[in-house]
Amino acid sequence: MIDFETLLLFLVPVLLTYIFFFTVKHTTTTTTTVLRLPPSPPSIPLIGHLHLLTPSLHKSFQTLSSKHGPLLHLNLGPSRRLLLVSSAATAADIFKTHDLAFSSRPAFAFAEKLPYGNSGFITAPYGPYWRFMKKLFVTELMSSRQMERSKTIRAQEIELLLKRVFENARSNAALDLGSEFMKFTNNVTCRMAMSTRCSEKFEDAERIRKLVKESFELAAKLCFGDVLGPFKELSFWVYGKKATDLSMRYDELLEKLLKEHEERRLVGGNGGDEIERDLMDILLDVYHGACAEYKITRTHIKAFFLDLFIGGTDTSAEAMQWTMAELLNHPEAFKKVRNEIELVTGNVRLVEESDIPNLPYLQAVVKETLRLYPPAPVATRECRQDCKINGYDVPAKTAVAINLYAIMRDKDSWDDPNEFHPERFLVSLKEQEDDDPSDHQNDATKRMNFNFVPFGAGRRGCPGTTLAFNMINTVVAAMVQCFDWKIGEDGKGEKVDMQSGSGMSLSMVHPLICLPVVHFNPFHE
Predict the structure, then answer these.
(1) d(C-alpha 162, C-alpha 523), whole Å
(2) Residue 507, Cβ density class (10 Å: 0-12 exposed, 13-18 middle, ≥19 buried)
């Protein structure tokens, strides 16, 4: 249900409808007579289609598309157009054919009033800053050298994660798997980007976990400000102080890290030993450099790392949690994954990241889970210029919502789309192997289907997709190889509750509480 504060934001504009009714009516009439817009469900004056939406946007969008079609034009309040895309074919137009035209993201309401403003990478409009920061991210954090270095980091953090779980198993104590996965992803992100283990040096793993959770919850509320037109100040009045306070708590942590890096640079001589240089050192080089391709500010650096925390911790941790939940609810799939791992490792060593290519069923399980529970169920874009999609006009500045959740549960693309069936990806893999490699047209057609897009696609698709897949596969493999799991605090649960929550990410409503039982201990002396 929508909370009282959000409901209030909707009710006040409705009560003042008569002030703006003539203007809205005139504007709507003028626009629709000139443009050939996509189909649109029945709307209410002033609030448009807001009454059709719920906090679970992906599900309310899915309901709308199932009733009215895969491409819809929605009015979110008096001043915001939204193009809703719910089919793989139309998503291909957005992600590939017209990728450049849809390469910006909608700006959050009141971004200019918040400490980091519009300095973030994830929400930055397409332009020199975004291109520069993506280039840095891909060539530095995701480069072959950094990925190889971070492979050791991930292995160390998986070992520490396992040892924490072994402690619980020895004491016969249940644990929250989601919380443990969050600590893991926090530490990997911190060490890759800033050579720091959050949970040891700053004892900040739980602090960052809470900040990330608050960020998603608050962003889901603040985004409604964009659709309230002349009343959007009400949204900032209700949530603005919370957003500012949240940003300042991030700022305190990030400023501390920046100062420590700057002090180390002074002592070590512009970054010290090359091996120890991390992404923060690289960004500080750009910040202090006189000949940088793009002159970034200290705020840019902080906003970028804020994006890393949000994009690199919660989403991967949630995906690990959903995968384990599905395996616990499907013991036969759990057994198949374990047997596959034991065939590769001989059950004499811990499964490693380098083993993943030899574990096709594990990969199929992870892909099937991501299909059912994409980390960000709705991908957002904004049209940079007037264009046409499926013969319909899409005006510049139109916000776009690509419902990945609906696309990956579309009965036209998938058999039994709501069922957990990993084998479907083994069939897909076999078909690819059987295809003639010279059949480039067939390969291009497959790529254009875009029916499996858990991390989005195109220019604004997640640049950390490879890293996310590596982490999810390896962590899940280790959890299956080393432990049997009993569901619930007392280990007597029969099924994991798979209810999903509301908001911008696809989280589990109920924590995944399990009792671990040792099956294989790779650290046994």
Answers:
(1) 10
(2) buried
Q: Provide the angle, in degrees to the nearest 10, between the axes of the packed helices 128-136 and 298-309.
A: 60
* Residue keyed to tokens 């016969």: 172
Packing angle between helix 233-268 and helix 4-15, nearest 10 degrees? 130
Q: Tell me the pLDDT tens digit for each residue of 436-453.
A: 444 433 333 344 478 999
Taking the model in full, what pTM does it have?
A: 0.86
As a residue count, the chain comes to 525
Tell me the pLDDT band of 241, cut-offs 50, 70 and 90.
confident
DSSP code per residue over 344-386? HHTTSS---GGGGGG-HHHHHHHHHHHHHS-SSSEEEEE-SS-
8 Å CB contact between 420 and 372 = yes
Can you give the three-state secondary structure of 29-86, one letter per residue? HHHHHHCCCCCCCCCECCCECHHHCCCCHHHHHHHHHHHHCCEEEEEECCCCEEEEEC
| Cβ pair 181, 317 in contact under 8 A | yes
Among 452, 164, 506, which residue's Cα sits nearest to residue 322? 506
Residue with tokens 């992870």: 366
Closest listed residue to residue 178, CA positions, set 308, 369, 320, 315: 320
- Report the 3 state secondary structure along 405-443: HHHCCCCCCCCCCCCCCCHHHHHHHHHHHHCCCCCHHHH
Rg over alpha carbons for the chain, rounded to the nearest Å, is 24
- Name the β-bridge partners of 198: none
Q: How far is it, in rounded angstroms, from Cα 505 to Cα 313?
A: 12
SS3 category, 352: coil
pLDDT tens per residue, range 68-117: 999 999 988 777 889 999 999 999 999 999 999 999 988 766 666 666 76
